[in-house]
TrEMBL record:
It catalyses: 2-C-methyl-D-erythritol 4-phosphate + CTP + H(+) = 4-CDP-2-C-methyl-D-erythritol + diphosphate. GO terms for biological process: isopentenyl diphosphate biosynthetic process, methylerythritol 4-phosphate pathway. The keyword Nucleotidyltransferase applies. It comes from Nitrosomonas communis. The keyword Transferase applies. It comes from the Bacteria. The gene is ispD. SUPFAM superfamilies: Nucleotide-diphospho-sugar transferases. This is 2-C-methyl-D-erythritol 4-phosphate cytidylyltransferase.
């Protein structure tokens, strides 16, 4: 039976967050941001192992106690210049670390910067895709009216939102397929794993998620993530 293995790329600098500390370590509900995604993934009964991919020069990780995740957690200092490079390096390191991981195993790539992922969303993704030929991702249909802007930030036109979805993570593909896809693509030209699969001519499935699983990108996102995490704790 194929297994489910999570990979968290966490080698980014968080440039849009404007903070000296890489955003995955910023404090959220009393813990470094990455703790929350790790907690959800490590507590899922489906997930066999969780790989965290850090920058080679990361000096923050070892400042914290991660022992509560020890039974599933593997940490690798092999992040690359882009998210796609970090994921591909992580997949290679995963194979070198554990020879029992095979190309048919499912990989769930999840951003360290999406701390509000729930077990429910994770289960929805796995249930929808476990028998899928290609794999897919959590996503939400675009809810707002879309404007195209000119260089002066004036509206050039209104775009149709019909059929448009916002991609989230986890993005779930089989190890062999994902490695093949990421090895062939220009890593600087893509921002998610599904794009690499699409470049092979395949059609990843969109699995309905919700806005709570948003990506913490700008400073003002921290307060919203904190509220969602507090709500999760009281439920
Ligand atoms: N070279 C990189 C770039 C990004 N990431 C990871 O990919 C996820 C999503 O990327 P994003 O939110 O864009 O994070 P950053 O690249 O850190 O942020 P920014 O684009 O604002 O610099 C994050 O968990 C980030 O740490 C990574 O592992 N390696
Ligand atoms: C993978 C991702 O979170 C899906 O929305 C997103 O593409 C990451 O993109 P970013 O430009 O690196 O934030």
């Amino acid at each position: 039976m194929p297994r489910f293995i999570a990979l968290i790329p966490a080698a980014g600098t968080g440039s849009r967050m404007n903070n000296e500390l890489p955003k995955q370590y910023l404090s959220l509900a009393g813990k470094p941001m990455i703790y929350h995604a790790l907690h959800t993934l490590c507590h899922s009964s489906h997930i066999f192992r969780v790989f965290v991919i850090l920058a080679p020069d990361d000096h923050e990780w070892n400042r914290y106690d991660w022992s509560s995740f020890a039974d599933k957690l593997v940490v690798k200092y092999c992040g690359g210049a882009t998210r796609a490079d970090s994921v591909l390096n992580g997949l290679k390191a995963m194979q070198q670390t554990d020879g029992s991981i095979v190309k048919d195993d499912w990989i769930l790539v999840h951003d360290a910067a999406r701390p509000c992922l729930t077990i429910f969303q994770l289960d929805q993704l796995i249930d929808a895709l476990a028998l899928d030929e290609v794999g897919g991702l959590l996503a939400i249909p675009v809810a707002d009216t879309l404007k195209r802007a000119d260089l002066n930030q004036r509206v050039m036109g209104t775009e149709s939102r019909n059929g448009l979805w916002q991609a989230q993570t986890p993005q779930m593909f089989r190890l062999g397929l994902l490695m093949d896809a990421l090895s062939k693509v220009n890593s600087a030209a893509i921002t998610d794993d599904a794009s690499a699969i699409e470049a092979l001519g395949l059609d990843p499935r969109l699995v309905l998620s919700d806005a709570y699983n948003f990506k913490v990108t700008y400073p003002q996102d921290l307060a919203l993530a904190e509220l969602i995490l507090q709500k999760k704790e009281t439920n």
